Amino acid sequence: MDALESGRFLREVINTINDGFFLVGPDGRILMANPALERLTGYEAGELTGQTCAVLNCDACVRSRSLGGGHWCRLFDRKDEHRKRCTLVRRDGTSLTVLKNAKVLKDGDRVIAAVETITDITAVVEKDRRIEELSRLLGSDEGFAGMVGTSSAMQRVFRIIERAAESDAPVLVLGPSGTGKELAARAIHELGRRKNGAYVQLNCAALNEALLESELFGHVRGAFTGAIRDRQGRFEAAHGGDIFLDEIGDIPLPIQVKLLRVLETKRIERVGDNASREVDVRIIAATNRDLGRLVRAGRFREDLLFRINVIPIHLPPLADRREDIPLLAAHFLKGIRERDGRDVTGLTPEALRLLTAYGWPGNVRELRSALEYACVIAEGGRLGVEHLPQHIAGAAWHPECAGPGMAAGLAGTGDRHNGPHPARAGHEAQGHPARAEDGGMPSAGSLAGPLAGVSAGPPTGAFMYGGRPARHERERAELVEALRAAGGNVSEAARLLGVHRGTVRNRMLRYGIDVHRAVEG
Question: Collapsing DSSP states into helix, strand and coil, what is residue 106?
Fold first, then answer.
């Protein structure tokens, strides 16, 4: 094989290489480039040939040239580069992270050219960024993106959030009120590929149909009374990012039709306009409602449910992850100390046991509110049972709910009673044996100190009726009756009871009342 044939075959070999390859003369001008370099940079070989390699805007080369030397580039002084990480700028202005290898070619002492290859490592850099972000979130004192929990149920939620963040498919976050649906939605955005885009939130239950349509899709001037100028909606504001639609189960049917169209066509129409606009948005929705039941009742479109329920994430109620309560309590108390400067050192064992045994119809939000209240009442020191809200301090005591870690602290506490505790004995008498093996509750640790030898009994002085103080039973019954009389209208129920609408909402959370079950019951 002669030199001419060797050169031809060598060029064919270079053209099949998957890495970018180019030859640079001593004056810095590009002599040749292979197809892989064209693909990576967006430049055609003809555009690169004859130009200096500065056209690629390599950050390492810019720094190198600024240091000076005997040649156009310090590479000709150093003779080679091995796996040097640098950033190029493509023809379209976007960045490309690469590993560069280079070697100076010489004929005796005469420098002929330099050969350089570049390997695209953008995907590797992105994976490193995500690993670092996840490590920061999982290893921080704030838990996983503000969500605290080491229970198996929450660890599963965290894993699904990580997977959902990698996708652009719609996500539906399900769970009772107060379980952290908004935090889950925010975590999906912060971990996702749209992290640098907008994150727009809207509570769909807070607006009537006309206002909700305008908020979602925007309106043009003159579309309705008071529309004095064009206004973009939440979908347009979220272009390139994520939109979080909270309480999506409360969207009226006419708006559901338009939302379905947006999901199918990726286009919106402002109210009063007949021109459509393209939107690039990922939808994250959340609800505490049973959407399947709403579909059967004709109050939610089945086709819309199929479109938004691509990646469902179920957040467990706090009662299903009691082992997380000490961690949550410590987390909230730390936040209160830092925010208000209160000298709160923790919880007494009795208070922690009561928090662990309580049913938490309002879930994590109710726990946080209870600790806020206790800190105000106590003003400092350790929080005891006497500092907790009355509806929690007077709740029925179920030590078997505490799990093995907590139950271990209850063993041998009969020294203050002749036999087992009355609450436990009564529960067992009804055919429900104590289940010390059911939970998985860790010891309270620094939050409450050792638990052994402390009475497991409930606070004294509360008249109990059916597991609740009689006043609470009466208050609950009145609320259910008012909701039925009002046909499920919270504002009307508040008027019938002579209280504020927010009070009705708080009582519904406190007693775990679902308005639709109350009306249908």
Answer: strand
**Residue 118 DSSP SS3:** strand
Instruction: Look at residue 426 and tell me whether its pLDDT is greater than 60.
Output: no
pLDDT at residue 80 tops 90: no
| 401 vs 436: CA distance, rounded Å | 8
Q: Give the list of residues 6+ apart from residue 174 with CB closer than 8 angstroms, or none.
A: 181, 286, 287, 288, 312, 313, 314, 315
Q: Is 157 exposed, middle or buried (0-12, 13-18, 19+ CB in 10 A)?
A: buried
10 Å CB burial of residue 222 (0-12, 13-18, 19+) is exposed
Q: Identify the pLDDT of residue 71.
A: 52
Residue bearing tokens 């929080």: 383
- Between the alpha carbon of residue 72 and those of residues 58, 65, 103, 154, 520, the distances in Å are 14, 7, 15, 58, 83
What contacts 361, CB < 8 A, 6 or more positions away?
A: 509, 510, 511, 512
- Cα–Cα separations (whole angstroms), residue 49 to 24, 38, 54, 95, 117: 9, 11, 12, 21, 16
Task: Quote the longest CA-to-CA distance of the chain.
Answer: 106
Question: What interhelical angle do 470-485 and 501-511 show, nearest 10?
Answer: 120
Please state whether 199 falls in left (phi above 0), alpha (psi between -120 and 50) or beta: beta
Render pLDDT for 341-368 as a digit per residue (tens, 0 to 9): 888 889 999 999 999 999 999 999 999 9
DSSP-based three-state secondary structure for 402: helix
Q: Is the pLDDT of residue 453 over 50?
A: no
Question: Full-prediction pTM beyond 0.90?
Answer: no
pLDDT band at 2 (very low <50, low <70, confident <90, very high): low
Burial per residue of 238-264, b for 16 or more beta-carbon CB atoms within 10 angstroms, e otherwise: bbebbbbbbbbbbbeeebbeebbebbe
Q: Are 312 and 174 in contact (CB under 8 A)?
A: yes
Q: How far apart are alpha carbons 81 and 104 in whole angstroms?
A: 9
Judge whether 331 and 293 are in contact, CB under 8 Å.
no
> In this structure, are strands 311-314 and 171-174 parallel, antiparallel, or unpaired?
parallel
- The residue among 237, 244, 245 whose CA lies nearest residue 198 is 237
Query: How does pLDDT run across 180-190, given as a tens digit for each residue?
Result: 999 999 999 99
HEC sequence for 150-192: CCHHHHHHHHHHHHHHCCCCCEEEECCCCCCHHHHHHHHHHHC
pLDDT of res. 297: 96
Burial class (CB in 10 A: 0-12, 13-18, 19+), 93: exposed
pLDDT at residue number 341: 85
